[in-house]
Amino acid sequence: NAGVTQTPKFQVLKTGQSMTLQCAQDMNHEYMSWYRQDPGMGLRLIHYSVGAGITDQGEVPNGYNVSRSTTEDFPLRLLSAAPSQTSVYFCASREANVLTFGAGSRLTVL
Amino acid sequence: GQQLNQSPQSMFIQEGEDVSMNCTSSSIFNTWLWYKQDPGEGPVLLIALYKAGELTSNGRLTAQFGITRKDSFLNISASIPSDVGIYFCAGNYGGSQGNLIFGKGTKLSVKP
After folding, report:
1. Angstrom distance (rounded) from CA B89 to CA B75
2. Which residue in A70, A62, A61, A75 sits closest to A19, CA to CA?
C-alpha cells in the first residue's frame, strides 16, 4: 500500500517554463489537495478536490491549475513558472479529517 | 482568513527534557491534529483530537483539545534525538469543505 505518491522529487525550471507535478493515491480517498511549504510560512493550501471532476481554489491558487479526472490522480500544473513558485509542494489525500501526505516535490525556478 | 498561532517557533533542548508547544485560533475548531515532519519528508500524523477536553497519548506524546475549542497543546516527554523535526498543528473549523488550516510549525532541535 503506497499511500500518496508524488513525482518528481526534485525539479529545476527556468522562468516561463511549464511543468506538471504528479500525485497519485491508492487509498480510494475522495478528497485530495496540494499545499506549498515555504520557510516560516507553514503549509498553505493551493487547490483541492472533493471528488473526480470537482476542483476548487485554496488560499494561494494563482499560477497553478489542477484537474481531477480520476479518484486516484490529482496533478498540479504550473503554466508559466515564476521564481516566487520556488517551494516544496505536498500532495495529500484525506479521510475523516485526517490528511495523509506524500513525500514532497522540491521545485526551484531560476 | 482563519489563522492558527503556533508557538514557540523553535526550541533547542537537551536530550531527556520535556517539551511543550501549543496552538491557538480565533475561531472554534471541531478537530485538532498534530503532525511531525522529518527533514526531506512529508508531515506524518501524530495525534488527532475530536472533542473539547479530549486528552490523547501516543507513546511519549500527549495532546489535548482545549475546553474553549480554540486551542490545543502537544507535550513530548523525555525527548530523544529522533524527536528532531518540525511539528505542525492543524485545525478544521468546519468551513470551506473542511479544509485543514496549519500553524507555521515548531522546529525542535535535541542536543544529545
Report:
1. 12
2. A75
Q: Which of A43, A44, A97 sits opposite B98 (nearest CB)?
A: A97
Q: Is A93 left (phi over 0), alpha (psi -120 to 50) or beta?
A: beta
Residues of A in contact with B92 (CB under 8 A): 97
Task: Please report the pLDDT score of residue A39 as a whole number.
Answer: 86
Burial of B97 (0-12, 13-18, 19+ CB in 10 A): middle
> Could you give the CA distance from residue B37 to residue B106 in angstroms, rounded to a whole number?
10
**Cα B26 to Cα A72: distance, rounded to the nearest angstrom:** 35
Can you tell me the distance from the alpha carbon of B55 to that of B85, in angstroms, rounded to the nearest whole number?
23
pLDDT recorded at residue A1 = 62
pLDDT tens-digit series, residues A24-72: 999 999 999 999 999 888 899 999 999 999 999 999 999 999 999 999 9
Helix (H, G, I), strand (E, B) or coil at A101: strand
Q: Considering only CB atoms, which chain B residues are within 8 Å of A58?
A: 99
Predicted confidence at residue B112, as pLDDT, reads: 87
Q: Kindly tell me if the per-residue pLDDT of B95 is higher than 70.
A: no
Query: How many CA atoms lie less than 13 Å away from B105 in the CB half-sphere?
Result: 20
Closest-CA residue of B relative to A51 is B97
